[in-house]
Design brief:
It is built from six helices and five strands; from the N terminus they run E-H-H-E-H-E-H-H-E-H-E. The chain has about 190 residues and is of the alpha/beta class. Strands 3-2-4-1-5 form a five-stranded mixed β-sheet. Helix 2 crosses helix 3. The longest helix has 17 residues. It is globular and about 45 Å long.
Length: about 190
C-alpha cells in the first residue's frame, strides 16, 4: 500500500427497526423508544454478514442505539471486536432515537462494554409536543464533525462503523438503505 494511504472505513446502516417498519415520513411518531430490529432487520443483518467476510474488518464501532448494536452483533460477532461509541448516534428527532442507560444496555448485551458512556448519552434539551428532546441541527452537525475527526485518526483498519441514516448522510453525503455497506474513505 502506498505511504499515506489508509485502509478503508465501511459504513453500515442498521437493519430495519420496529420504528422503520411502521413510521410514515411526515406521520406522527409511533413512540417506539430505542427501537430494536424487526425479524426482517435481523435477516438483513445476517445476509450482510456474508458480504463483510472478505473485507478484513479489524474493528467495529457501533452506535449505542439498540438497532445498531443488534446489527453489529449479527454481522460481526466472532469476526471482529465491537466497540460502542455515542459520537455517531442518530440525529435525535423521534422516539426511536432516544437511548437507554448503560446499565440497561449492559443487561441486554452483557458481552459489550458500556462503562465509558454517560448515564444519559443522548441529547437532552427542550421537548417537542410528543415529549422528545429534539437535537438542534447545529449540535448534530458539530457532533458528526468531531466523530469524523476521530475516525480519521483511527488506525485500526479496515474498520466498520454501524450506525444510522441521518448520521451517514451528514458524515458522507449519501443516503443508505437498511444494512447497506458503503466504503467511506481509505
Amino acid at each position: 500500500m502506498p505511504k499515506g494511504t489508509l485502509m478503508p472505513v465501511y459504513l453500515i446502516r442498521h437493519g430495519q427497526s420496529e420504528f422503520n417498519a411502521v413510521h410514515d415520513a411526515g406521520g406522527p411518531d409511533p413512540m417506539i423508544f430505542d427501537a430494536p430490529l424487526t425479524q426482517k432487520g435481523v435477516r438483513q443483518a445476517e445476509e450482510a454478514r456474508a458480504a463483510i467476510r472478505d473485507l478484513g474488518i479489524r474493528q467495529v464501532i457501533a452506535s449505542p442505539l439498540t438497532r445498531a448494536i443488534q446489527t453489529a452483533l449479527c454481522m460481526f460477532d466472532g469476526i471482529a471486536p465491537i466497540r460502542i461509541a455515542a459520537g455517531h448516534r442518530e440525529f435525535l428527532n423521534h422516539s426511536c432515537d432516544m437511548g437507554r442507560t448503560p446499565s440497561q444496555l449492559r443487561t441486554e448485551f452483557p458481552g459489550l462494554s458500556f462503562d465509558h458512556l454517560e448515564e444519559i448519552w443522548w441529547h437532552q434539551g427542550p421537548l417537542n409536543a410528543a415529549g422528545i428532546p429534539v437535537e438542534p441541527y447545529s449540535v448534530f452537525r458539530k457532533r458528526i464533525e468531531v466523530f469524523a475527526s476521530e475516525l480519521r485518526l483511527n488506525s485500526e483498519r479496515p474498520l466498520a462503523v454501524v450506525g444510522h441514516g441521518d448520521t451517514f448522510m451528514e458524515l458522507a453525503g449519501f443516503a443508505m438503505a437498511n444494512c447497506e455497506i458503503r466504503r467511506y474513505f481509505g
